[in-house]
Known about the structure:
alpha+beta, 2 domains, four-stranded antiparallel sheet, three-stranded antiparallel sheet
Amino acid sequence: GNYKVQRWDIHKHDFLESAPGLGMYVTVSTPSGEVLLSKLYGPQGTFSFTSHLSGEHIICFQSNSTRLLAIAGSKLRIHLDIRVGEHFFDESAVQAKEKVDEVNVRLEHLIEQIQHVSKEQDYEREREEKFRKISEETNSNILWWAIVQTLILMSVGIWQIKSLRDFFIAKKLV
Length: 174
């Protein structure tokens, strides 16, 4: 709803365009007595509420002024415009909000994709590091195995040479 409060001017014999310093306390209650809205507004304002119950709702306007003498001797006029149901105040604002929501969803999707790519890169980095360590260990083991094979081959060669020399000396061929 929209409202506007005007105060009677005794000197001009007309209502003033606005009532400066005057505020309105707006209270909205459901048919069951539950308070949906209770808020202090200025001399002119817009209020809205959402009710989940159908039926007659009570809208109460109270002045916040404590100057009873000023109010008691003057008149107040309240203009009230109430809209019932779902109304969009500005269609361009709704469209802009929908575009922002759409961009927001796309942005969240892009952020999720970036996080996924980042996790994938971390996983690949860990796999590469493990593979490098395994490769280095394998190369080290192959080097030691080659050294051991070389020592065994040299030992067998030296043993064969010594055995053949001893054989030839025993048979008196040398």
